[in-house]
Amino acid sequence: xxxxxxxxxxxxxxxxxxxxxxxxxxxxxxxxxxxxxxxxxxxxxxxxxxxxxxxxxxxxxxxxxxxxxxxxxxxxxxxxxxxxxxxxxxxxxxxxxxxxxxxxxxxxxxxxxxxxxxxxxxxxxxxxxxxxxxxxxxxxxxxxxxxxxxxxxxxxxxxxxxxxxxxxxxxxxxxxxxx
Length: 179
Ligand SMILES: Cc1cc2nc3c(=O)[nH]c(=O)nc-3n(C[C@H](O)[C@H](O)[C@H](O)COP(=O)(O)O)c2cc1C
Prior knowledge:
This protein has helices at about 15-25, 40-45, 65-75, 95-100, 120, 125-135, 160-175, and strands at about 1-5, 30-35, 50-55, 105-115, 140, 145-150. The chain has about 180 residues and is α/β, with parallel strands linked by helices. It has a single domain (about 1-175), classed as Rossmann fold (3-Layer(aba) Sandwich). Strands 1, 2, 3, 4, 5 and 6 form a 6-stranded parallel beta sheet that branches. β1, α1 and β2 (about 30-35) form a beta-alpha-beta unit. α1 packs across α7. The structure holds flavin mononucleotide. The site of flavin mononucleotide (FMN) has 22 residues, from α1, α3 and β4.
């Protein structure tokens, strides 16, 4: 099976989570991982059986040009101590999904968000899965949020949880394949 793990990330948290998910998926097929602003992302999606797509939660949902602009502003505030990802300026998951011609038949969605009550944080992952379904892709497993602190630092144990979730995605994908 060919698996594409595609992510958006302004400050690196979602990139690290995506790489950990890819590790968990490694026993289940050929895994390619790419940022939405890397041309390889589209190529990987076009040839994949399964797309695992994720991004940061911005304003309770998927990022928009305005929220990514806000993130750029945060990164130039020395008090926040945030380093911008080299591939950060550009498109987001929402636009990438809209502009990618071929979306794999199977998918799973994830996000990163702040570790506070879901009612307060919102979560991008459900919106991403909904957008994938609108493109005709079937979810193999429920969307998942991985958590960061209010200071934008990955929570303790979240990389391990991401690896385990990747393994669960792989197992779920196999159940779909065997049907
Ligand atoms: C403009 C902006 C808006 C955000 N809005 C939310 C939000 O509504 N809920 C939330 O839980 N986190 C929110 N966050 C925090 C990010 O989801 C979180 O820091 C994420 O891990 C960043 O991922 P990244 O490092 O891959 O960019 C927001 C961050 C930014 C920059």
